[in-house]
UniProtKB/TrEMBL annotation:
This is Transposase. One of its GO terms (biological process) is DNA transposition. GO terms for molecular function: DNA binding; transposase activity. It comes from Bifidobacterium adolescentis.
């Protein structure tokens, strides 16, 4: 299996070929053993192709997940701004 610190990256065409093998009836166990792909990876690719026609994670996000990601990003930005303002307030309080 792949090293978690260095995940493998597969070409989109390879992913589609693997999903095609699965869709044509090749057992998941044979595919994962032959190509050294985890069950969860194979399942994610199959679901992605079925749902949106793409294996890219960004293409398979729900509107709620997209909103959550954007809100978390905005929250991090606001937290950084608050930290900067706190530091500025400390500097001005000393003067």
């Amino acid at each position: 299996m792949a090293d978690p610190k260095h995940p493998r990256h597969y070409e989109e065409s390879f992913k589609r070929q693997i999903v095609q093998l699965y869709e044509n009836g090749k057992p998941a166990r044979e595919i994962k053993d032959e190509y050294d792909i985890s069950h969860s990876t194979l399942h994610r690719w199959v679901q992605g192709i079925r749902n949106s026609g793409s294996t890219r994670a960004a293409d398979n996000r729900t509107p709620e997940l997209i909103e959550l990601i954007e809100l978390r990003k905005r929250n991090r930005q606001l937290e950084m701004e608050v930290d900067v303002l706190k530091q500025a307030a400390l500097i001005f309080a000393r003067k």
